[in-house]
Design goal:
This is alpha-L-fucosidase. It comes from Phocaeicola coprophilus DSM 18228 = JCM 13818. Its EC number is 3.2.1.51. There is one protein chain. The protein has 716 residues and is an alpha+beta fold. It folds into five domains: 1-36 and 265-300, no CATH class; 38-145 and 204-259 and 304-373, Glycosidases (TIM Barrel), CATH 3.20.20; 386-489, Galactose-binding domain-like (Jelly Rolls); 498-581, Immunoglobulin-like (Sandwich); 589-715, Galactose-binding domain-like (Jelly Rolls, Sandwich). It is 17% helix and 32% strand. The chain has 13 helices and 34 strands. The strands form eight sheets. Strands 8-7-4-3-2-13-12-9 form an eight-stranded parallel β-sheet. Helix 4 (72-82) crosses helix 5 (121-132) and helix 7 packs parallel to helix 8. The N and C termini lie far apart (76 Å).
């Protein structure tokens, strides 16, 4: 049977014949080259960068795009350092604002003050990509709110389909490329294709054209002439893959989540060339045998695992918009690239036309980890099949399922915790359905990793093992697989940062610090993936913890006091985590002046959950706590809510009472720079006092806000 990118399933095909056909579905040369990119970037920039919105309305004045300077070299240097091979620029997002000097609209950079209206971000980026050796792609949104909202807009204007020539000539702006197309088009499709022509002929080679399927608003039953778009792209950008249809697909989420099994041979209900109905690409199971049996066509369509390094696609600020840690980005890289997909990471430039320092720091650290971990194959000098050690996808070894497998013997033992496998998908499709890797330990084979498919690439991660022999076994497959590469590596695991929390009833828990990132969580345990084997040691007497301190194994009860903890891995100590614990809050009763905002009642300021918070109207609202019994007080801690910058207590008065009626001032507090640094703050009294009731009165709110809020109040 010949291999093909798409194979039709006949009604008479048996399950065995369908699986045989699946084993002959292969990527096109462009798809295979796109897979080899492995790690690519998104750049979202536009009016939303300045309005701090995720989706614009299309009604924005172009001058709101107030860019003063631009440094695309800095972007490319940082991406290159990360190991990124291609960058895709959002040359037009849903708002219709364009980032290049288009002939066909003035709703874009030509109507801003940037370089006196002569600026062209796509041109700058293209030049920087050439300089740094990166490929270039473009995101051109089919949805266009400017063309919808503008009374003279072309989107959904009910214009007739007539024969039209692409490109439409514009006096004074001739094209160097003299290619002409004729299509039956309406006004908006003509507009869109004229823009495609500009982008694909005037900015160097384009390697991916990214079509978003989102439609914030539609009008007039507008249809897209995708067949014409595709013909134009294939003609003008012959090396480009198209995202959104037959070449590259969405992974199904925007969080960096990955499937345990990511098949790129997927079933289609219609021919991908002419399909009007497409499979659900968000389903958990896309390509198992059970799914293939339902197909009318089998088609090779690879996944891109896309997410953003920041909370959101566009830059908002460097204070409240959190950035993914290097641990998180590296973990997504290993799961995505090592899970038969491409990792597409969005890095939004700031309003100075640069990547922010934190983003650059993360990119450099991720690139260093990739280089340190994967640049050397620890099996390179082993005794084994040379076809698997030459880093060439075109050489391979046929490894039938169920046999003893392929063995690699080393001259000296090595310590490893990663194994990378690849199939020759370009010639023999993806065939492995289940596989395992064994290590020779204590005179016998020990299974160290097991997974389902391999496809273009599988990265297996496991705890450190020292061995001088590795064995790869195929347990189940679609025909005989062609294994192309096998490599072993060592990732230098780092002891993770820790966090100390306490439940409302006083149970202390110490664990690896979770990613402080509140946008589309992927749910992966990053510490378990990257820091396997670490141990936690702690103290409660103020001393510095080390390997001789008690080991934390399960939550324990603790009233007020100081706790310090450290993670230790392979003898290396992580950063010491410190927490001053106040009185247990289980029996506290909390009341407040000022009407509490919806779902933000006073008790939430003392529930041991910083994600919830009390919020009251008025700038002088007070919160009162009944401790249930008289206690000695030395001070309090205030944790501001971080959902936004509202209600942060800049100044206030701490009062105490024994009966809840007669109050004495215990001290006045002031917390500075809360807006830029919304972290837990402490205030200590000059002299300790005994009291059952505590009242915190706010006298000034940061940034002049008109409300008062607190995520947590702790009393010491």
């Amino acid at each position: 049977m010949e291999c093909s990118n798409t194979i039709k399933i006949e009604e008479t095909d048996t399950p065995e014949q369908i699986i045989e056909k699946a084993a002959h579905v292969v990527p096109t040369p462009n798809q295979l080259n796109a897979l080899k990119n492995e790690f690519i970037a998104f750049i979202h920039m536009g009016p939303n960068t300045f309005t701090r919105m995720e989706w614009g309305s299309g009604k924005e004045d172009p001058k709101i795009f107030d860019l003063k300077e631009l440094d695309t070299d800095q972007w490319c240097e940082a991406m290159k350092a990360a190991g990124i091979k291609m960058v895709i620029l959002t040359v037009k997002h849903h708002d219709g604002f364009v980032l290049w000097q288009s002939r066909y609209t003035d709703h874009g950079i030509m109507s801003t003050g940037f370089r006196d209206g002569k600026g062209d971000i796509l041109k700058d980026l293209s030049a920087s990509c050439q300089k740094f050796g990166l490929k270039l792609g473009v995101y051109l949104s089919p949805a266009d709110l400017f063309q919808i909202e503008n009374p003279k807009g072309l989107y959904g204007n009910l214009s007739k389909y007539t024969k039209r020539t692409i490109p439409r000539e514009v006096p004074g702006r001739p094209f160097a490329n003299k290619t002409k197309f004729e299509f039956e088009l309406d006004d908006y499709n003509e507009y869109f294709m004229n823009q495609l022509f500009e982008i694909l002929t005037e900015y160097g080679p384009i390697y991916e054209v990214w079509f978003d399927g989102a439609h914030p608003k539609t009008k007039g039953g507008q249809k897209y002439n995708y067949a014409a778009w595709k013909q134009l792209i294939h003609t003008l950008a012959p090396e480009a893959v198209i995202f959104g249809r037959e070449d590259v697909r969405w992974c199904g989420n925007e969080s960096g989540g990955t499937r345990e099994t990511e098949w790129n041979v997927v079933p289609y209900p219609q021919s991908p060339d002419t399909a009007t109905v497409f499979p659900d690409m968000t389903a958990q199971d896309l390509g198992s045998r059970e799914q293939l049996y339902k197909a009318k066509y089998l088609h090779y369509q690879q996944a891109e695992t896309n997410t953003s390094i920041r909370e959101g696609w566009f830059y908002r600020d460097d204070t409240h918009q959190k950035v993914r840690s290097a641990d998180d980005v590296f973990d997504i890289y290993e799961r995505a690239v090592g899970g038969n997909s491409t990792f597409l990471l969005n890095i939004p430039p700031n309003r100075d036309g640069r990547f922010s320092d934190k983003d650059v720091e993360v990119l450099h650290e991720v690139g260093k980890r990739i280089q340190d971990t994967y640049s050397v194959n620890l099996l390179a000098d082993s005794k084994g099949a040379k076809e698997l050690l030459d880093n060439d996808l075109n050489t391979y070894v046929a490894v039938p399922a169920g046999e003893k497998g392929t063995v690699f013997s080393l001259k000296e033992p090595v310590t490893i915790n990663r194994v990378v496998l690849q199939e020759n998908v370009g010639e023999y499709s993806e065939r492995v359905e289940e596989h395992a890797v064994d290590a020779w330990v204590d005179g016998q084979w020990k299974e160290i990793a097991k997974a389902t498919n391999i496809g273009y690439k599988r990265i297996l991660r496991f705890p450190d093992v020292t061995t001088d022999k590795i064995r790869v076994r195929v347990l189940q497959s679609r025909l005989t697989p062609a294994i192309a590469t096998v490599s072993a590596h060592y990732y230098a695991s780092r002891p993770p940062r820790l966090e100390i929390t306490r439940s409302i009833d006083g149970k202390v828990n110490i664990q690896a610090r979770k990613q402080d990132f509140n946008w589309k969580a992927h749910g992966e345990d990053v510490a378990a993936n990257l820091n396997a084997g670490f141990k936690i040691h702690y103290t409660t007497d103020g001393s510095e913890p080390d390997v001789n301190s008690p080991e934390f194994k399960e939550p324990f009860s603790m009233d007020r006091g100081e706790i310090k903890a450290v993670s230790i891995l392979h003898g290396d100590k992580g950063e010491v985590c410190h927490e001053q614990l106040g009185y247990i809050k289980q029996n506290w009763k909390v009341t407040a002046t000022g009407s509490a905002a919806d779902k933000h009642e006073a008790q939430l300021a003392a529930d041991e959950n910083p994600a919830t918070y009390w919020k009251a109207n008025g700038t002088n609202a007070a919160i009162t706590i009944d401790l249930g019994k008289e206690c000695e007080l030395a001070g309090f801690a205030y944790t501001p809510q971080t959902e936004n910058s509202d209600g942060m207590m800049a100044k206030g008065i701490l009062k105490t009472s024994s009966d809840g009626k007669s109050w004495k001032e215990a001290g006045r507090f002031e917390f500075g720079n809360l807006i830029n640094d919304p972290t837990k703050r402490y205030y200590y009294l000059k002299d300790k006092v005994n009291a059952r009731y505590v009242r915190i009165e706010t006298t000034e709110v940061a940034a002049g806000n008109k409300s008062v809020a607190a995520a947590e109040v702790d009393l010491f």
